[in-house]
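Please check these two lines:
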Amino acid sequence: MKKFNALDLVALFLVVIGGLNWALVGLGDFDLVAAIFGPMTFLTRVVYSVVGLAALYVLSIIARSTKK
């Protein structure tokens, strides 16, 4: 089993948080990020961007793990 470094764990955590937020949007029409930081404020955009970048990083984790 692969050992995850700190960046891997942070990225995985952010992707899970992002997935849960999308579940709230889809199931309950409630955007938790927008509720905390305001609809499309600078901080909201930063959170969405960081989660998106984390998702791209998680794709690289998957690619690395499938090469072995």
